[in-house]
Amino acid sequence: MSYQGKKNIPKITSDRLLIKGGRIVNDDQSFHADIYMEDGLIKQIGDNLIVPGGVKTIEANGKMVIPGGIDIHTHFQMPYRGTTTVDDFAQGSKAALAGGTTMIVDHVMPEPGASLIEAHDQWRQWADEKACCDYSLHVDITHWNDSVKQEVDNLIKEKGVNSFQVYMAYKDYYQMSNSELYEVFTFLAERGGIAQVHAENGEIIAEEQARMLQMGITGPEGHVLSRPEELEAEAVFRAITIASQTNCPLYVTRVMSKSAADIISQARKKGNVVFGEPITASLGTDGTHYWSKNWAKAASFVTSPPLSPDPTTPDYLNTLLSSGDLSVTGSAHCTFSVAQKAIGKDDFTQIPEGVNGVEERMALIWDKAVTTGKMDENMFVAVTSTNAAKILNLYPRKGRIAVGSDADLVIWDTDAIRTITAKTHNSAAEYNIFEGVELRGAPLVVICQGKIVLEDGNLHATSGVGRFIPCSPFPDFAYKRIKARKQLAVLRAVPRGMYDGPVSEFSMSRGGTPSASARTSPTKQPVRNLHQSGFSLAGNPAPCGPPTPDDIPIRPAGRRIVVPPGGRSNITSLS
Amino acid sequence: MSGYQGKKNIPRITSDRLLIKGAKIVNDDQSFLADIYMEDGVIKQIGDNLIVPGGVKIIEAHGRMVMPGGIDVHTRFQMPDRGMVAADDFYQGTRAALAGGTTMIIDHVVPEPGVSLVAAFKQWREWADSKSCCDYSLHVDITEWNKGNQEEMETLVKDHGVNSFLVYLAYKDVFQLSDSQIYEVFSVIRDLGAIAQVHAENGDIIAEEQRRILELGITGPEGHVLSRPEEVEAEAVNRAVTIANQTNCPLYITKVMSKSAADVIALARKRGAVVYGEPISASLGTDGTHYWSKNWAKAAAFVTSPPLSPDPTTPDYLNSLLSCGDLQVTGSAHCTFHTSQRAVGKDNFSLIPEGTNGTEERMSLIWDKCVVTGKMDENQFVAVTSTNAAKIFNLYPRKGRIAVGSDADLVLWDPDVTKIISAKSHNLAVEYNIFEGTEVRGGPLVVISQGKIVLEEGSLHTTEGCGRYISRKPFPDHVYKRIKARSRLTELRGVPRGQYDGPVCEVTVTPKVMSTVSSVKTSPAKQQQQQQQFTHQPVRNLHQSGFSLSGAQIDDNVPRRTTQRIVAPPGGKANITSLG
């Protein structure tokens, strides 16, 4: 931390930076080199770089330099029944930077019935005014019809949004039916979007909530009792089925339980294109706190899907994250004050949902997964940054230290030890769900857009400097496989000619014909092509006897069939 | 094979007394050599050197196996479909069943939406009583859900001996129920002590896929299987298991047709769910490659839902799971249609009436695929073809076991006879047999139903209308012992906290509608009462341990930001909020 040339300038505004002696950690390899940045971009990487004079130099002394974290799931400044979450884009992105995260991806939540584009523009406005770091936006689809479809198309083509979330929970509010999910997924697959799901079975939750309240359970423990982890796993399974049917890449937000994670890892083994996102809360704490006698504390843990009461869950999820079965991490940071949470003091279903985690995410994963030897530093970079950049199609601009990439870097101190507490955190909430947890590993210096924002423990974030980063459709990371499968899966009918045998009379009172709503143009999904092989295979199942040729007449003696006028074709074997 | 003590040469036996000598009795738990004496349709004595009245007809078994007659848990004889009726009625169907060694069938009552359950049940009783050749019982399908249904189900359970109800996750806009409705149906079923059966396929996705396939110009039977991929079956099974667990209701999956659906069931059982899986003759004996046959009529004969899997290794896999106990019972889902009836869907596969044959072939097929290949022994064979069904549906030990006091429904089994299945020789009314050309080893030599010989030396002597309706009591032990124990265990309690007295945010009145706008909720008073008697699914009891576990946190007293000002409420504060 010294200056070449001019010394003692308290705050740096220069656009030129040199990190000397750092160990660069990407998701594929680590190596020693210097990094030179200018105008927010990495210009040179190597030894003995030739750089202009007067450049601020940071001595890394062999410490790790990693790509800044990408928090792929935040809800800053989210409106909720006339109030907003306590962390707005300024407060939230400040907390992010303090934790080593240099980009956030926030969720736009249009009210059901409201325009997606208007909501998107509103969020853009809020974020542009206040965000201290770069950001992107997911858009949540809270209802579905043709005009929404148009808007989604527009968002993908013109607004730089490539990921959309649908809800399987929140019955009668955000929840979508299976048919709607099918249509949304079909459409997204066609336009190159990523389908995100909030996976919980809303119908059963509604029933269970009613049951809990009837039994007189009104506290936060009712929240987790009415949302058992099976319901999460069930919805994940269903979402995967629909996505696989429509050949659409799937992204499951907030993986909170072992069984949900298991389903995702099983599906990946079967070849499904599915990504799982555990969040800071599910990786760092558990749901036993819902039984706390302190209502305010118990309520601060309320989020959906809920934290699992099984205390071994965090360790299990960290293991799956390390093995690659889960792909990315977010924080789902969505904080409410105790007074806001108290809206639900007599009815747990009214408690606003959301937990903190944007600041703690990187350190927590380092502590739980890297210091314990579950993953190495490269995998750490992958799950905190690179994979997210790939899914959002921002790679290698974000998520990698390379020439030409954005100068979003973190010098990571592997030995720093901090205790998380609400007294020192950068969020505006009174509670921190990780209160008292001691973590090893922390950012020493954070560089965002080529500027130092964290140094010597001091945060120098500037509100409003964050840029919107547009994401383009068809990210290779997800769509290369999808495209290949699309080409493979061509369905063809069996050429048979017309059936010309007798036809029974029947009434159309009921039938299997689908009466479905507005239909999107069809996409194809892979199905084993049996058109070629079908005929020869059909001979197989009768290994003991001679295969019945299709044109041998099989007909009970008692049955009389009239030959149709003009003779018969060979398609019916009745003669 | 059989001789008469005393009077000889009486061509046809009408006596109610029968003695089987030198039999190897095969039950699901053991096999042993003994004689069996039957009278009035009931087994009276088992043992050696029995003292029996004179003039009894004797069957010499010569050490051959005698096993409990098969129970086909799933048939749809004489089923109405859009003005047509399934080709095999109760007479033709039960005759075929007896010819294959099955002495009892359980048929499905399918009420048209809008028709009362009891009325439909009575209609089926009437049809079956007049035509059935063997004992039968009835499942009732719930094809729509409203308040009246609950009372009707109660009537059926209490007065009509029905203890199983089937719901459909498929057939959108016809039979399909929503998840909430299924939750309610399952709650009712559990309270009544019945078994919840499901037809497991995701109807919403199927409807979308059907349209897509038709749009692509695929109208033949191959479209049927293309629009119903096996994943869609597995998904629905998984969902049904989840809802059943949630409601602590025993679950029975009808027609397990694919590997992945069977896997989901096996996995759920390993996790402790009370769930049973029923593969059918078709899924155990053939596969879905035939949907691509150039012969439309043949391809259409295989149309059933869920469809046969195009993966030709599926039957072997299902037979293995059946042998290891992951799947428990077998049915036939026998529901046959003439080619001319199938041809209703000649231009649109989604109109083809669904169903395959299998009641006659079921026992032989399983013997051939499982016992001959060494996957299971003869005792397990009895379990999956008869005993397990009797236990699940509360017919045991009257049915499903050879024991004194049990019904005289027996089969003398010949493990060595071979037969080629063909539509030319089967006992059905339809032109096609989906197992055409399959050679099976093992078949019934003598079949005894209600203490009378109905199959002997290859000829059938069935009597139309002699089948009795067998009523079934609720709360079968085999199923409900575990359910009851679990409901005792799981008592949910709130955490005693007193009133929260801190500040509360103002809220605009747009209600967050997620708080349970339930549909036609079944009488809540009743539910509450039942919750007190025995409730719901096991959940880890954290009430005791919660506090100490959360004690890890150091901050319970003072987590307060300095900037926040909280006014103490008048009259002091309670200890439940730590603010202040």
TrEMBL record, chain A:
Pfam families according to UniProt: Amidohydro_1
GO biological process: actin crosslink formation
CDD domains per UniProt: D-HYD
Highest taxon listed in the record's lineage: Eukaryota
Region (Disordered) location: 505-575
GO CC, alphabetical: cytosol; growth cone
Primary residence: other
MF-aspect GO terms: hydrolase activity, acting on carbon-nitrogen (but not peptide) bonds, in cyclic amides
Boundaries of every Amidohydrolase-related domain copy: 64-453
Biased composition (Polar residues): 506-535
InterPro entries: Amidohydro-rel, Hydantoinase/dihydroPyrase, Metal-dep_hydrolase_composite, Metal_Hydrolase, Metallo-dep_Hydrolases_sf
UniProt subcellular location: Cell projection, Growth cone; Cytoplasm
Keywords annotated in UniProt: Cell projection, Cytoplasm
Function comment: Necessary for signaling by class 3 semaphorins and subsequent remodeling of the cytoskeleton. Plays a role in axon guidance, neuronal growth cone collapse and cell migration.
Family statement drawn from the similarity comment of this UniProt entry: Belongs to the metallo-dependent hydrolases superfamily. Hydantoinase/dihydropyrimidinase family.
Protein name: Amidohydrolase-related domain-containing protein
Origin organism lineage: Eukaryota, Metazoa, Chordata, Craniata, Vertebrata
From TrEMBL, chain B:
GO molecular function: hydrolase activity, acting on carbon-nitrogen (but not peptide) bonds, in cyclic amides
Superkingdom field: Eukaryota
Record-annotated Amidohydrolase-related domain positions: 65-454
SUPFAM superfamilies, alphabetized: Composite domain of metallo-dependent hydrolases, Metallo-dependent hydrolases
Subcellular location as annotated: Cytoplasm
Ranges for region Disordered: 519-538, 549-580
Similarity remark: Belongs to the metallo-dependent hydrolases superfamily. Hydantoinase/dihydropyrimidinase family.
Protein name: Dihydropyrimidinase-related protein 2
Organism: Oreochromis niloticus
Classification lineage: Eukaryota, Metazoa, Chordata, Craniata, Vertebrata
